[in-house]
Amino acid sequence: MTLHMGPEMQDHIGRQLQAVYNEILEESVPERFIALLADLERRTTEKL
Amino acid sequence: MTSPPSTSVGLVADPKAEMLAAIPKLRAFALSLCGRTAKADDLVQETLLRAWAKIDSFEPGSNMAAWLYTILRNEFYSEFRKRKWEVADTEGLYAARLTSPAVQESHMAFLEFRRAMAKLAPDHREALILVGASGMSYDEAAQICGCAVGTMKSRVNRARNRLQELLLSPARARAGQEYPDSGAVLDAERLP
Q1: Which residues of chain A from 24 to 43 reach within 8 Å of chain B, CB to CB?
Q2: Per-residue pLDDT tens for B58-84?
Q3: Any bridge partners for residue B86, and if so which?
Q4: Other CB atoms closer than 10 Å to residue B156's CB: what's the count?
């Protein structure tokens, strides 16, 4: 793929940006965060 | 009980569910600041802890991901700022597993892009992810980053121009960075 300055290049940047972002969005939430939130919720409930 | 107390003022009905739903976006924002590394997830973890402690200051019904991101970025600028944006060293290994030339070609373009991203200043990378990828308006992004709308627009423009330069001259984007051998071999194949 040969890239030049201009609209085509801006489209390329737009698509790649979206790809970087979507790659993370599509990952499942790491277990550590699920566990952390469950723990925080449990501790808050216990205090009530 | 048949319905959650959704009308209550100052209380989020289910903070855990809202935070959980915001995590993918939050991780993507964290990446814009500190790269695709374990540091990004450490930053997310710290953010969730802080956010939980001050959930009362969250306005119910407003954008949870945006709120979390303001906390994350404060944390980043107070604790993580000096650390360099890093490109994960697993990228080359991943590329080596891709066998189809077409897939390799597009993956190489993707890696080249990430390397160019790594060369940008953090505030420029952030502007691109918030406005260019997450679909936030300039107004929203400026509010989150505590800057004027005009500043945000100028960051996005300068970041795009810089990326353009770097992508047209990949050698400059690569300079000063180290990559695993597998990635280097694939790179070499693209040279004229």
Answers
A1: 24-27, 29-30, 32-34, 36-38, 40-41
A2: 999 899 999 999 999 998 888 755 555
A3: B35
A4: 18
Task: Judge: B20–A29 Cβ closer than 8 Å, yes or no.
Answer: yes
* Token pair belonging to B179: 């990559």
- Which helix (H) or strand (E) covers residue A8, if one does? helix A7-25
Burial of residue B180 (number of CB atoms within 10 Å: 0-12, 13-18, 19+)? middle
Mean pLDDT estimate for chain B: 77
| B-chain residue closest to A39, CA distance | B16
CA B8, CA A48: separation in Å to the nearest integer? 18
Rounded to the nearest 5°, which phi and psi values hold at B86? -115, 145
Q: Which two tokens stand for residue B144?
A: 């989150």
Identify any residues that bridge with B35 across adjacent strands, giving them in sequence order: B86
Strand partners, B83: none
Interface test with B, best of A3, A9, A13 (most B CBs within 10 A): A13
Which parts of B8-162 are beta strand (E)?
none
Provide the pLDDT for residue A3.
62
Nearest to A17 among B49, B133, B164 (CB): B133
Question: Which tokens in the block code for residue A2?
Answer: 């040969």
